[in-house]
Amino acid sequence: MTRRRVEPLVWLMFSAGGVLAAVFLPILVILFGLAFPLGWVDPPDYQHLRAVIGHPVTFVVLLGLFVLMLVHSAHRFRYTLYDGLQIKHKRTVAVLCYGTAIVGSVATLAVLWAAAQAV
Amino acid sequence: MIPSSGMPTDLRLYRPRVSTWWWTRKRSYFVFVMRELSSIFVAWFVVYLVLFVYAVGQGEAAYRRFLDWAASPWVTVLNVVALVFVLLHTVTWFNLTPQAMAVRVAGRRVPSFHIIAGQYTGLVVVSAFVLWLVTR
After folding, report:
1. Which candidate in B20, B22, B47, B53 is best for mutational testing of the A interface (most A CBs within 10 A)?
2. What angle do CA B2, B8, B9 make, to 5 degrees?
């Protein structure tokens, strides 16, 4: 069965995304979600940001970070619906969760690629 | 009965109904479900960051517009809630790692305190690097 072969890979990506979310997200939420928009810290200079986002290393790192965090989130949410909220439509829940993560990953790739080319 | 193919055919298992709200009865269950719900806010912030990168790619005016939008009350409230859930994720994830993974050095199991402290060191290093990269 395909599902059995995919399952360990999903758990691996769940763990990797979990570690990355744990170490990267607090500072990213504080800076980009609150400090910059609200002016607690001066927002980064536009040209500097542009240079950082245009760098190939940033492209690879952000792509890996975002995709793994999306898979982490989808996998965890799948089990939240199943165990937490007792929604027992196993297949539908799995398809919706992973489907959203895949669509999100493709959109992420498109946006990161376009932004890196725009420089 | 289970035939040789391994697929149960006419098994009828007794499955008691569990209430949707089973996790509200005990503090530890509640924290467990809150921890699991952190996934929503992880996803939200990935979307937020992708929109941020998109705005930067569109030009300086779009970048300014994004910052104005991000300063609006509802986005601010959402991001404050996201920060709470993300911190819950970080703390619970670090605490669970030594239980999920037995690290051995020279045949001896590394005490969980060291693993947890190591992860907080990683958090500090990564945070300092991100701060340096975006604000220098």
Report:
1. B53
2. 105
